[in-house]
Amino acid sequence: MVDNDTYFQERLACLDEKREQMLAILKARNCDKTFYHMYQYKIDDLYTLEKQRLYQQWNKTSEK
After folding, report:
1. How far apart are the first and last CA of the chain?
2. Mean pLDDT split into 10-residue runs, the chain, 64 residues
3. Alpha-carbon distance 62 to 13, whole Å?
4. Whole-structure pTM value
């Protein structure tokens, strides 16, 4: 069984990887800079929210 810290570290690493994949897809589309930056900000916002949610879960489970 995986301990709590390892589980959340793996989830965060997966989240980082998915963010990089989305940005690579966006870049590969060769879209104009305005479109690219608009979606880059959206991806970063979603990434930040998900990361905060994971940290909150981690803190809640660590307290128990």
Report:
1. 18
2. 83 94 89 87 94 91 76
3. 19
4. 0.77
